[in-house]
Amino acid sequence: MKSLYSEQRTWLHGVPASVKLVFLAVLGTGLFFTDQLLTLGASALVCVAIFVSLGRITASAKPLLMGLVVASVLIAVFHLTMQHPTLAAVTVLRLVSTTLMGIALTLTTRYSDLLHVFERVLSPLKIVGIASEQLALQLALMLRFTEHFFILWRRLDDAHRLRTGKAGGFKILAPLTIQMLVAARRVADTLHVRLRR
Known about the structure:
The chain crosses the membrane at residues 12-33, 39-57, 64-81, 87-107. One of its GO terms (cellular component) is plasma membrane. The chain is an all-alpha fold. Helices cover 73% and strands 0% of the residues.
């Protein structure tokens, strides 16, 4: 599976994966403890500045950004239709902040680094008899498949656009689901074979 991780170094590559995960967790949680537009707007500006500072590597995330724009517009239109303009702004600002930082994490953090962080954080669970390595692997795979989902989506959308000249939209959901299930089955079979050795 191809990764969105960029080998081209940026300043964020030098930040440990644990620090980036903690920042993302605190940001994501903190944004839901306030409805102040000023605070949320400042947070969104900081997140946009961090993302833009990564430079050229953000070009590979263009499909994800397009998805973010479409989702933000749809959410805003829905809340505006329901006559809740403040809620529309709050929701979009939260979505933009957390999504940009999630993409930045994906672009600048190796999968193996994330796995090591999960293993360290979950290691105390061994005391109560929980296999923390397996739980860490499941969390890391979940993140990996989220990334893989967007890559497949982009490929199918590009293929559909080449054939028809239009974006795939909902028409690519069925082949996307099939390819995701096939990929998940391959990974499961591989893990099953290796763990039985």
